[in-house]
Amino acid sequence: MSYQVGVLALYLAGRRLEELAFFRKLCVSGQKLGVEVLVFTPDDVDESKRQIHAITYNTASDKWTRKKVGFPPIIYDRCRYHGADNYRKISHFRRTFTKLNYVSRPLANKWRMHQILSESEKIVPHLPSTTRYKDSKELLKICKRYSTVYLKPQGGTGGRGILRLQRLQGGEAFLLQGRDPSRQIIPAHRVEATQLATRLSSLKLNDRYIVQQGIQLELKDGRVHDFRMLVQKDGTGQWQITGCAGRIGPRKSVTSNLHGGGTASPMDSLLKSRFGSSEKVAEIKETAYALGLNVVEHLDTKFDTFCEVGIDLAVDPKGHVWLLEVNPKPSREVFYRIGEKETYRKAIRRPLEFSLWLLKQRKQADKGAAAAATASVRPTFLK
Questions:
Q1: Which residues contact 111 (CB under 8 A, 6 or more apart)?
Q2: Alpha helices of 9-135 — where are they, by DSSP H?
Q3: Distance between CA 344 and CA 26 in Å, rounded?
Q4: Pairwise CA distance, residues 115 & 317, whole Å
Q5: d(CA 234, CA 31)
Q6: Which of 100, 248, 315, 326 is most buried by a 10 A CB count?
Q7: Residue ranges of the ATP-grasp domain (predicted)?
């Protein structure tokens, strides 16, 4: 194949790749596009030879094979940190190989992302009030303004470590529940205001957490829900809304993430069940889609090249759309879960189509530069 794209990943315990099924589908899509997809981790790098010992999936043999190659011209970063050892490895890799060309990258933690998004007048009306966690005294002041607040780790993913604090009648006690750093559910329990500092200290809260205004996310059965929107660059370098779907959390959970046991629902049917009116549903969708494009276009002015983000949205009982979170390493499983197979295939294919477009653009630019250089050199017999 004439083009190559590298996928940067990390091994979990036992040299297992977290998204191996996704990587196989990337390889299959790549072969249809004429792109060889090469999956590797920092452990697979020979620094002295600047080579990688990558794996690639071959559809003809239905097998994964390994091969030693130089670094591909485009890197699709799918690293999700699990533990200090992996964080050390990927940090070393990025410090060592600074000139690689990425189409995906870490963007910013939740607090920094909130600050960046707050710079846009189009986005601000959709942002919940958010501040950095200082201490329990400041938290109590925030809880007087909002009956529900969420405490989120700035760098957390998949619902890990998220807590919800609901003010009970009278304001002298709270209902605390959430998930621990391993995604295990912390059951709802009453915490007196005087005990809050001690309880939060036991949960290891610190200034790496943010405090966010709670949006009413409960459905009639008490389960929380939100919407995951996937926005990607296509094969012409333009931003497109690939799709948006609802996520419903399991009972007693404060998060809706699929990895935490959540279920998926088509956006239209979930909105219709809440608001009834087709006109209201269309209005909410139009607002949500416009917001998604505003977000990526604003972030495009702040960061180097990136090809996709997952945007978590909430719709309150009045139909107002809220922006909860931006994820630079989004999953696309939600579309498979709701039976939108073509959307799911498109979600897999688009990072490769964008990478292919970039590679062709650079190839044309290199040809143009070479032609210009040749034209500028006069043959000696003409002198």
A1: 130, 132, 154, 210
A2: 20-33, 84-96, 110-117
A3: 12
A4: 26
A5: 18
A6: 315
A7: 114-356
Yes or no: say if 155 and 110 are a contact pair by the CB < 8 Å rule: yes
Residue 154 contacts residue 110 (beta carbons within 8 Å): yes
- Please give the Cα distance from 266 to 244 (Å, whole number): 8
Q: Both tokens of residue 236?
A: 């012409």
Distance CA 226, CA 316 (A): 10
Quick check: 267 and 360 in contact, CB under 8 A?
no
Q: Domains of the chain (ranges plus CATH)?
A: 3-102 (3.40.50.20), 116-126+221-365 (3.30.470.20), 129-214 (no CATH)
pTM of the model: 0.91
Place of tokens 């807590």: 163
Q: Please give the average pLDDT of every successive group of 10 residues along the chain, which has 383 residues.
A: 91 89 97 96 94 95 95 95 86 93 92 97 97 90 92 79 88 87 84 88 82 92 93 98 95 78 92 94 98 98 95 96 95 95 98 97 78 64 42
Length of the chain: 383
Q: Kindly report the backbone phi and psi dihedral angles of residue 370, in degrees, each rounded to the nearest multiple of 5, phi listed first.
A: -65, -40
Helices (DSSP H) in the chain: which residue ranges? Answer: 20-33, 84-96, 110-117, 136-145, 196-202, 267-275, 278-300, 333-337, 341-376
- The amino acid occupying position 243 is G
Q: What tokens were used for 112?
A: 């920094």
